[in-house]
């Protein structure tokens, strides 16, 4: 994926943003490679949007540096604008304009040369599947089609690096899948994509995933790498009676990183060196709990992030 001839799209070191006494982003550092889809995850309020706004030159950091295609973002915010696309959670499409008029408006904003404007708009309409909807008013579009149009407007000027801030929030699952197909198509053509999301299934599709929690970057790796690094233990589903008491008991048991209710099972992430099925069954029996089944299950990114959030609350860094 990484072509040595290309400059690194983004290098971030010690990025920090404080609002008064509140630290929104706390000494965050990472590098993004050409053509990569980097997922930036975390609960609401963890610092994702603030990070993006700084990297787009819209917010000045309190500390830290960011280089985009070799350009200092904070010293030269105007120079990076032609190189980036930004689709915010509330992307400003104009409801009273048609699909085509919105694209023409943004072509003007991005100063796309008139000679190539029509061809480029046609390319975007084709990419986003909007050829049949050019005369539709934007306000009449469903969430999924609005999202495609917003993406089309954000990439009209062929940005090298695309920032997408929770672009699939509030859109139905079919539209989300189709939107991700568009993202992969752009990445395969060389666009680097930095996307924030809180959907775990979307995170699984990213080349690498960064996890923000309480303003800090807790981890950054491939989905498989995160699972192997942080889930040294096993993921088990337990059938047990009484079930709620099982979850409550295991939530406070040493060697158990996480216990939660998954349907009619207790989902447990634990240290498999300390615990075996037999030991756990005996331990719970001593607490008046009967284990009816133990099944090893494949761990998920959600398990990883629950564990990292648990460590974050405990003041650990992993």
Q: If you average the pLDDT, what whole number results?
A: 90
Overall body shape: elongated
Q: H/E element string? A: EEEHEEHEHHHEHEHEEHEHEEHEH
Strands, count: 14
Oligomeric grouping of the chains: single chain
**Tally of DSSP helical segments:** 11
Helices and strands in order:
Elements: E1 10-19, E2 22-32, E3 37-41, H1 48-55, E4 63-68, E5 71-72, H2 77-80, E6 84-87, H3 99-109, H4 114-128, H5 143-154, E7 161-165, H6 173-188, E8 192-197, H7 200-203, E9 208-213, E10 216-221, H8 223-230, E11 234-241, H9 243-251, E12 256-262, E13 265-270, H10 277-285, E14 290-296, H11 301-313
Parallel strand pairs: 3-8, 3-9, 6-7, 7-8
Antiparallel strand pairs: 1-2, 1-4, 4-5, 9-10, 11-13, 11-14, 12-13
Helix pairs in contact: 3-5, 4-5, 8-11
Give your account of this protein's structure.
This protein has 318 residues and is α/β, with parallel strands linked by helices. The chain contains 11 helices and 14 strands. It has helices at residues 48-55, 77-80, 99-109, 114-128, 143-154, 173-188, 200-203, 223-230, 243-251, 277-285, 301-313, and strands at residues 10-19, 22-32, 37-41, 63-68, 71-72, 84-87, 161-165, 192-197, 208-213, 216-221, 234-241, 256-262, 265-270, 290-296. The strands form 3 sheets. A 6-stranded mixed beta sheet has the order 6-7-8-3-9-10, with helices on both faces. A 4-stranded antiparallel beta sheet has the order 2-1-4-5. Strand 4 and strand 5 form a beta hairpin. Helix 8 (223-230) crosses helix 11 (301-313). The protein is elongated. Residues 1-5 have low confidence and may be disordered.
